[in-house]
TrEMBL record:
The keyword Transport applies. It comes from Phycicoccus endophyticus. This is Metal ABC transporter ATP-binding protein. It comes from the Bacteria. Residues 8-242 form the ABC transporter domain.
Length: 265
């Protein structure tokens, strides 16, 4: 086991809304350098879990440590970047890519101090990291949904987080943007960026992910390396309702878990 301090540490954690518990009894540790894919059927509680650990849904039980600090006392929110689900930029926003990404630097300086040269360099590097350097001066409203998603990832990166949490970054965008987003995440992983990625499109991230965590009905039912995930999928009878995508399940697994046709389309 690595001696590096954990970025996320959940012990029997439960999250929900009001009186309703959605996620319960979750143990999860994420360490620096890991790229964890969080999978599970629709409604299994993936978003509730990531929002819960970030303090955006109710913490109903167990322990939640963020960078070693209990969630209730954690104040350094820029150390964990978050790109929420189905979030894109309003087409009515008249701002350039650079201006939007620069917002990610704001928590790092007093409101009255103008951006420093270092701030500007970090913003430019964040835009390069998502492959949008050639669009930096353009208005975000002129970009596709997938490109806007990359702008939001760049904005999170500009905060120089130690962990990047993304809720379905490749969902609902065209195939070309999915490929570009996967390329973006690949580049970040190569630079050692730790990530927790909720996804249904595992195939797109096959060579990026180091570990898979699966949820079912509010519980973690698998947590292990990508190679072991194949056996987990195989253990569930073909044709059962067990499925980590919202598309029809094929009659039998084809090749490895990453090669399932429904995950590729
Ligand atoms: N704001 C909310 N208030 C009350 N219940 C909610 C809220 N958001 C989600 N839920 C409920 O929590 C359960 C889990 O939803 P959640 O969005 O966490 O699942 P998910 O695995 O992320 O699903 P998907 O893959 O469709 O995004 C669902 O029954 C959902 O109706």
């Amino acid at each position: 086991m690595s001696a590096a301090p954990s970025l996320i540490d959940l012990r029997s954690a439960s999250f929900g809304y009001g009186d309703r518990s959605v996620v319960s009894g979750v143990d999860l540790t994420i360490r620096p350098g890991e790229v964890v894919a969080l999978l599970g059927p629709n409604g299994s509680g993936k978003s509730t879990l990531v929002k819960g650990l970030l303090g955006l849904t109710e913490h109903q039980g167990g322990q939640v440590l963020l960078l070693g600090t209990p969630r209730e006392h954690f104040r350094e929110h820029t150390r964990i970047g978050y790109v929420p689900q189905r979030h894109s930029l309003s087409t009515s926003v008249r701002a350039t890519v650079t201006e939007i990404v620069a917002v990610g630097r704001l928590p790092h300086r007093p409101w009255w101090r103008p951006a420093s040269r270092e701030d500007r360099e970090i913003v430019a590097a964040s835009i390069r990291a998502v492959g949008l350097a050639d669009r930096a001066g353009e208005e975000v409203a002129s970009l596709s949904g997938g490109q806007q998603r990359r702008v939001l990832i760049a904005r999170a990166l500009a905060g120089q987080p130690e962990l990047l949490v993304m809720d379905e970054p490749t969902a609902g965008v065209d195939r070309a943007s999915q490929v570009a987003l996967a390329e973006t995440l690949r580049g970040l992983a190569a630079r050692g960026t730790s990530m927790l990625v909720v996804t249904h499109e595992l195939a797109a991230l096959r060579d990026v992910v180091t570990r898979i965590v699966c949820m079912d009905s509010g519980h973690v039912d698998f947590d292990g390396p990508t190679a072991a995930y194949a056996a987990h999928v195989a253990a569930h009878a073909p044709g059962s309702t067990y499925d980590h995508t919202d598309r029809p399940r094929p009659p039998a697994p084809v090749g490895g878990p990453f090669d399932r046709p429904e995950a590729r389309s």
